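About this split. The held-out portion is used to measure sequence recovery: a designer receives only the structure tokens and must propose an amino acid at every position. Recovery is the fraction of positions where the proposal matches the reference. Here is one held-out target exactly as it appears in the evaluation file.
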């Protein structure tokens, strides 16, 4: 995926890491001209989808000066 544009606006620059749920990439959001992290998920089953939703709820509730939105 490196060098590809996904979603019409995110240019994939490099892989940051991978885990059980998917792969995280450093990307450039061309519409707002800034770097972002994109996570490509492997949601093969209902359990994976539920894990993702739990993670999203937990991460959405974090607030700290060293965590970007």
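Reference sequence for scoring:
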């Amino acid at each position: 995926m490196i060098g590809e544009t996904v979603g019409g606006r995110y240019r994939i620059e490099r892989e940051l890491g991978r885990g059980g749920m998917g792969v995280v990439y450093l990307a450039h959001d061309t519409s707002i001209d800034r770097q972002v992290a994109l996570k490509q998920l492997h949601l093969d089953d209902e359990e994976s989808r539920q894990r993702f939703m739990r993670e999203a709820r937990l991460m959405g509730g974090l607030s700290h000066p060293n965590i970007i939105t």
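Annotator remark: The two ends are 24 Å apart (CA to CA).
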